[in-house]
Each structure stands twice: as C-alpha cells, then as structure tokens.
Amino acid sequence: MINIQMVDLKSQYQKIKQEVDIEIEKVISNTAFINGSIVKEFQNNLAEYLDAKHVITCGNGTDALQIAMMALDLKPGDEVITSNFTFIATVEAIAVLGLKPVLVDVYKDTYNIDIEAIEKAITPKTKAIVPVHLFGQSADMEAIIEIAKKHKLKIIEDVAQATGGEYTFSNGETKKVGTIGDIGCTSFFPSKNLGCFGDGGAIFTNSDELAESLSSIVNHGMKVRYYHDKIGVNSRLDSIQAAILNVKLKSLDTYNNARIEAADFYDKAFKNCEKLITPFRSKNTKHIFHQYTLVTKNIDRPKMQEFLKEKGIPAMIYYPVPLHKQKAYESYGLSELSFPITEELCKTVISLPMHTEMDNEQLEYITKSVLEFTEK
Prior knowledge:
By secondary structure, the chain is an alpha/beta fold. The chain folds into 2 domains: 9-104 and 112-249, Aspartate Aminotransferase, domain 2; 252-374, Aspartate Aminotransferase, domain 1. The chain has helices spanning 9-30, 37-50, 61-71, 89-96, 115-121, 141-151, 208-217, 239-249, 252-270, 301-310, 340-348, 360-374, and strands at 54-58, 79-83, 100-104, 126-130, 154-158, 166-168, 174-176, 183-187, 201-205, 222-224, 227-228, 276-277, 285-286, 292-296, 349-352. Strands 1-9-8-5-4-2-3 form a 7-stranded mixed beta sheet, sandwiched between helices. Strands 7-6-13 form a 3-stranded antiparallel beta sheet, with no helix packed on it. Strand 6 (166-168) and strand 7 form a beta hairpin. The longest helix has 22 residues, at 9-30. It is globular.
C-alpha cells in the first residue's frame, strides 16, 4: 500500500502526465504565457461544462470573490451575509473592500448556511449574500433566491469546494452550483476537485453586463489596452495553468464520482459507529466531497488525530476556530455573538483522506484504524 495522503496529486498526475506535459510544452513553445489562446479555450470549455454563459478566469479563488463584489459595485459599509463555518477567504474578501461581514450560523447536518438565520440578519444596509457550498455540497439555493428577491439582494456563490456539484430545484430543474446566483466564484488551488499546479480561480455569470465588468476588473480595469474605465486589479490565470486545467476538466466528473465512491465506502464502514456522525447528503444535491468530514461524539479528537498519524493516516480539522473568534475580525464586534452550531462543529469535526486515487486497500486500512480508536 502506498503512503496515504490527504490528497494524492502525484498519483493523479501520473495518469494524465503525457497529455499534461504535451500541453505545457505547447505553451512554453509559443511563449504566450499570459492571456494565451489556451486561457480562452479553457474558459469556453468550463462555461460549456457548467452551462454558464460566461466564465472569467483570475489569479485565485480569493480574488474571484473580491472581484465579484467589485463588479456588483458594493460600497464601504455595505453589509454582506455569509457563513461563520468556512475558510477565512470568504470573509476576507468582504473585509478587504471595507464592506461589513455579517456572519450567521449553519445547519448541523449539511454545515451550510442557515436560511432562517440569513433572514434574521438582514438590515437596510444588507446588499449581498455569499452562500458557501461547503465540503462539496450545495447550500439551499432555492430558499436563498427567495430571500434575495424579497429583499433585493445579490447572490455570490462561493464554489471553491464544489466545482461540478449540483442543486435540484423543487420543479425538477438541476443546475451546477456557481451558476445559480448572480455570480459564482471558484478556486483552482491544487487540492480542489478541479485543481491546477499553482494558484488559479474563476468567476461565472449569466449576465452579459456583469461579465463585461468582471473581464475589465481582472485586467486593471481595461476594456481597450491602456484605457482604464474602472478601478481594477491584476488577477489573471496564466496560460500554463489554463492548459493543465483544460486537460483535467475532461476528467472532472470522473474525479468527482471517485470521491463519491470513497465517501460511500466511509459511510458504510462507519454506519453503526455511535461515536461518529457521517456526512449528511441532501436529496436535492450532488455532494462531490471535497472533504469527507465526520462529527465526533465523546471522542478525544487530538488523541484520535495523533493515533491516526502514528498509523500513517493524515486527518485534518476544517475548521478549528470559527470566524467570529479570529483575532483579525475583533473590530467587527463578532466575538461576543452566539453561533452554537458553528462553535460545536469546530470542536468536533475531523476530515479523513479524500481524493480521486483512493483504493479499497487504503479505505479499508483507514476505516479499520478509525474504528479501532473509537472502540478503545
């Protein structure tokens, strides 16, 4: 059995090495390293895959969120509602623009943003909602759309952990996450379901007007070279990363299905373990398992993590500290607010290895080791 990794990018690369190497060599040979034709080709291919009208690539997922808010013309002091249980980038993009992050709690089963909590958090200053499709499962987008329409709010989907995931509406219509709100934002960080070999990100929209603004902002606010109509940023996906992503996009559904199969194995193994709660799967979503995250009950989590480490099994905590307790955000007065579910999850969750190259031997070893600890 090979060494167990949280994400085995090396084995994944070996399967596509020949095609990836050829595509990288093409970019190097034609020397169009920035905004080469391969970038446009990848944007078009991803748009087709998502059934989105426009895809605009950028430097990383955090930039994608910031650029989305800039395109929506949000102003300092405007309030943006998002989940308290997520990676820091979601709230960081809000704060860096001088906007006010308004955090709300999550559901204890899906870990996604609580719809009732959104409604309660809305004020006259609220301008947008940022639902995070955490760990690969869609937030309740139909309910979020209803709230946004009622209060005339914009929706920016954080799809960094869920590219290729799906949400089915009550009328039976299914859409890829990131194409449901006004703007979708994703990351191509190497460990993501669709990851490059460095940093990268993308923004999705079905609005021609927003697409024009987004395309300008990512490139210094230019439409025509050296004519700057907007205040922009320098955030572009380089051609080598686009070439790699173009290859990997062909296998994205295969990659996601491999993760689902690994999650099925985990679920079955832990089904009767009273000390572990396996991830909940909403009936109207396709959960693509960027992470496989358990909730522990009556378990010494640090000891469990150390036990698994001694067995050669990495296990991570996503996330150990809720956003409202982070020192960087003390000035927003969040630390005294109550977020009981987020706080409990931060104390009890643990994520097991999850990637596209897992085999039954690895899965059996991991699950047996976890159960061995729970039976102590």
